[in-house]
């Protein structure tokens, strides 16, 4: 009889089959689920299962990805998973110890990492002599087998294989009512009390956020966090005079840098400062900052939400909403104008009468569809015969190195391959190979992204020039906002001086030089007082 049963897994949902299997394994009985009823299966939410005896093995639940939540791979936070496991143990008559295991980079030593976590957290030395590992995932089980641990296959032990917990969770997400028949009463209880079924449906069915909680798998969030911090002073200086005290929300707050500056404003000391961020990496940095005392205001809160998933705040409850470099992402990752309009409507709905939405973002040039000529440098890098079609298969450092070695003209060819929003361009036969004709909006989309080699595969998923100033004014008026005179498009001359002019030039199709167009927009939109 082993002293311990190590049960590693994410454990977002517990099943009736698991209760029967673990109870039989812990008591030394036959663990074929075909025999007998499921232990604890008929116990109600307040009932108890079998009585634990001294000779029963202790189940050690190693809850992996314990530091992850609100992602498709890990929708349920650790503390809720732990609560369900403890309830499950009571109902199933199991002695249990629950140990969190934080996510690690992929390694073939994950079994050793888990065992060390158990030793450090619970003080238990699990060895092949005193422990059986219960695991249905062949790759993970093989790691423990290499260390000499005896194995129990859980669902893999039974033919036909019972529904695995993750499959049951996906049934929940798909609104298949059979999930309730398979889930253990402990899961049903905890899910009902904390509305986790709604959370699972929202996260698993999210059309934008990836498995690990980001917008794209290739995005380097360290780089983004640093960029947000560097630009925070400039952003706050541009919007500070328009901020209305009260409930102040930064949607897409990044690592919270702008809210840090708002926190230092004496006139906002009585305000609530609220950050909303979808990317797990950035949200976790916000929470870390708050825990470390970065904010003096006690009323600073952070939420991890996808604003495309529906309303985040109650109607007429927010005085100021700020968004920085967000609306082009909603346009790009959603259904373009349809998604953006829903977002603007949601902002309007949660704004108090007289409240304000301040939006700073990139902007398309006026007349973005007209054809222009773009001359690009061919001497600042290599000019291969054709662009690569396999960049996404390369490691990130190789992608960046390849792009860094291309001329500006060659990068346009590569951009046309990788860009998610197709556009046409035509080389101009002037003997140089440096000139092309294309829509002005596509030209500016390329020029404002051509230097982002570290995040190229992420940046090419986004369209900067989808809307021009006239489109913004029409959209805001249609929803009901009044546009403050402080609003308008503008050109970032630093970008022109350092990024555009050194390697590119614009002209009409007749060759007449064109001034560089606008690149950004500041919107100050107010909800009328009488609405």
TrEMBL record:
<keyword id="KW-0489">Methyltransferase</keyword>
<feature type="region of interest" description="Disordered">
    <location>
        <begin position="33"/>
        <end position="52"/>
    </location>
</feature>
<dbReference type="GO" id="GO:0008168">
    <property type="term" value="F:methyltransferase activity"/>
</dbReference>
<keyword id="KW-0808">Transferase</keyword>
<dbReference type="InterPro" id="IPR029063">
    <property type="entry name" value="SAM-dependent_MTases_sf"/>
</dbReference>
<dbReference type="GO" id="GO:0032259">
    <property type="term" value="P:methylation"/>
</dbReference>
<protein>
    <submittedName>
        <fullName>Class I SAM-dependent methyltransferase</fullName>
    </submittedName>
</protein>
């Amino acid at each position: 009889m082993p002293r311990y049963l190590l049960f590693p897994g994410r454990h977002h949902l517990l099943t009736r089959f698991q209760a029967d299997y673990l109870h039989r394994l812990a008591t030394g009985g036959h663990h074929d689920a075909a025999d007998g009823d499921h232990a604890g299966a008929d116990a109600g939410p307040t009932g108890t299962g079998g009585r634990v005896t001294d000779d029963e093995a202790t189940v050690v639940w190693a809850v992996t990805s314990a530091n992850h939540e609100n992602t498709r791979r890990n929708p349920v936070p650790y503390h809720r998973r732990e609560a369900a496991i403890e309830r499950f143990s009571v109902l199933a008559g199991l002695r249990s110890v629950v140990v969190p295991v934080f996510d690690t980079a992929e390694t073939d030593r994950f079994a050793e990492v888990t065992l060390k976590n158990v030793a450090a957290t619970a003080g238990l030395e699990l060895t092949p002599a005193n422990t059986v590992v219960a695991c249905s995932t062949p790759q993970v089980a093989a790691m423990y087998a290499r260390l000499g641990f005896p194995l129990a296959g859980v669902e893999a032990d039974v033919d036909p294989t019972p529904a695995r917990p993750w499959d049951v969770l996906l049934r929940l997400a798909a609104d298949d009512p059979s999930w309730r028949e398979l889930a253990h009463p402990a899961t049903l209880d905890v899910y009902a009390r904390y509305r986790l079924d709604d959370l699972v449906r929202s996260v698993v069915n999210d059309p934008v956020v990836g498995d690990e909680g980001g917008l794209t798998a290739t995005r380097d969030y360290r780089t983004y966090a640093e960029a947000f911090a560097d630009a925070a002073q400039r952003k706050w200086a541009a919007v500070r005079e328009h901020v209305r005290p009260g409930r102040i929300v930064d949607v897409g707050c990044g690592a919270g840098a702008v809210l840090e500056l708002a926190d230092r404003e004496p006139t906002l000391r009585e305000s609530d400062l609220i950050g909303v961020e979808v990317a797990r990496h950035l949200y976790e940095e916000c929470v870390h900052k708050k825990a470390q005392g970065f904010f003096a205001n006690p009323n600073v809160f952070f939420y991890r939400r996808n604003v495309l998933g529906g309303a985040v705040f109650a109607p007429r409850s927010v005085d100021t909403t700020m968004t920085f470099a967000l609306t082009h992402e909603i346009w790009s990752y959603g259904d373009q104008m349809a998604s953006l309009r829903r977002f603007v409507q949601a902002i309007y709905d949660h704004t108090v009468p007289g409240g304000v939405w301040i939006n700073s973002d990139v902007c398309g040039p006026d007349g973005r569809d007209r054809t222009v000529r773009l001359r690009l440098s061919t001497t600042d890098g290599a000019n291969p015969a054709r662009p690569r079609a396999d960049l996404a298969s390369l490691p990130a450092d190789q992608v960046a190195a390849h792009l860094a070695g291309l001329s500006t003209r060659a990068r346009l060819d590569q951009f046309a391959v990788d860009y998610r929003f197709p556009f046409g361009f035509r080389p101009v036969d002037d003997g140089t190979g440096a000139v092309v004709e294309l829509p002005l909006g596509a030209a500016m989309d390329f020029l404002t992204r051509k230097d982002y080699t570290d995040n190229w595969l992420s940046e090419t998923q986004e369209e900067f020039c989808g809307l021009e100033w006239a489109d913004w004014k029409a959209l805001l008026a249609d929803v009901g906002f009044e546009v403050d005179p402080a609003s308008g498009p503008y050109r970032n001359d630093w970008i022109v001086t350092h990024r555009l002019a050194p390697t590119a030039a614009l002209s009409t199709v007749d060759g007449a030089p064109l001034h560089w167009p606008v690149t950004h927009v500041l919107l100050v939109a107010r909800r009328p007082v009488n609405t």
